[in-house]
Write the structure tokens for this entry.
Amino acid sequence: EVQLVESGGGLVQPGGSLRLSCSAYGFTSRSYWMHWVRQTPGKGLVWVSRINGDGSSTSYADSVKGRFTISRDNAKNTLYLQMNSLRAEDTAIYYCARGPGASFDPWGQGTLVTVSS
Amino acid sequence: QSALTQPASVSGSPGQSITISCTGTSSDVGGYNYVSWYQQHPGKVPKLMIYDVSNRPSGVSNRFSGSKSGNTASLTISGLQAEDEADYYCSSYTSSSSLVFGGGTKLTVL
């Protein structure tokens, strides 16, 4: 069964850092783009970042560019999101998603990141 | 990276058809056949319903269909059922090699 499992969320102070992980099961992740998408509870979906299969190409939303870094370890079938200089507006559920092409399928269950003092 | 424009809400009665629009620009929706649609029930993870404008993943009901004209994509749900009540989001690939979502549409089945 294809499955994505996120971890690493939690409470962090403004200006702090956090690294999210997404473990992939049931498929060879190097064959796919992978994405991070976030959602503030009660609000809409916002695309955050994507990385291609071998990690040589990345892209970011303007709101996180220069603060977040996406990476992957294909040997471990794991995707990462390093988040630095966190702000209150980064508070959200963070989902990882597999990208067959330019779509997202499947999605992980999400991990909650709360930025607050 | 402006969000795609969707109506905040739509509604319909069981058995009817509804259409949700998703308007972008020539740099996203109009420039690529990479529009997708997602269904999200409250407290649940989003589910892919349509990809590449009009393709349905395996297991998605054929009551769901997608299309595109110019800078506007559309999701049509025919034979509306109570279980279709959910939030729906469109997304598109963009000219800056990024992706962008619409603001979401709440579908109410009357």
The beta strands of chain A are 3-7, 10-12, 18-25, 33-39, 45-51, 58-60, 68-73, 78-83, 92-99, 111-115. The radius of gyration of chain A is 13 Å. Chain A touches chain B through 24 residues (CB under 8 Å). Chain A has no helices and ten strands.
